[in-house]
Amino acid sequence: MAKVDKEVWIKAPLDKLYDYISYPGNMPEFWPSLTDIFDIHSLPNGGYAVKWVYKMLGIHFKGKAEYTRIVPNEFFVIETKGGIESNIVWTFRSREDKTRVTFTVIYKIPVPLLGKLAEAIITKMNDHEGELIMANLHTRFTPDYY
């Protein structure tokens, strides 16, 4: 299992960040390799079940995701199955006029046949992807944006 763990402080209200990030239809706007989210269904727990397409190393992986645990304006957990299996945890904490957003993904490398070199490349790429996600969110929510 591999892990990506990122954090960013954004000068924006916690509820605006939470509402935007937690809605799966918005994710392709800030998550570069997440090429599609579709078939979005609301769940009784306040989360969603969706289907997704993710591009890694030029390969499109497809799967399903479900929000399994949610505390509004604090955190939510997404489990993905299919082409990539993962647990994704988003957490939110506010202090004064800023919100700390953390993003942690624990995932199984989907291409075991390529060996350790490919695993190292994928891990590095996904770490960079995590940085891009946080940078995109920060840019989207700068005071000039809204």
CATH topology name, in short, is: Alpha-D-Glucose-1,6-Bisphosphate, Chain A, domain 4
| Biggest sheet details | 7 strands, antiparallel
Structure classification: alpha+beta
Could you state the order of secondary-structure elements as H and E?
EHHEEEEEEH
CATH class label: Alpha Beta
| Tertiary shape | globular
Poorly predicted residue ranges:
none
Task: Provide the CATH architecture.
Answer: 2-Layer Sandwich
Structural domains: how many: 1
Using only C-alpha atoms, the radius of gyration works out to 15 Å
Beta-strand percentage range: over 45%
N-to-C CA distance:
38 Å
**What's the tally of helices?**
3
Strand order, main sheet: write it out.
1-7-6-5-4-3-2
Task: Tell me how many strands there are.
Answer: 7
Give helix % range: 25-40%
| The named CATH superfamily | START domain
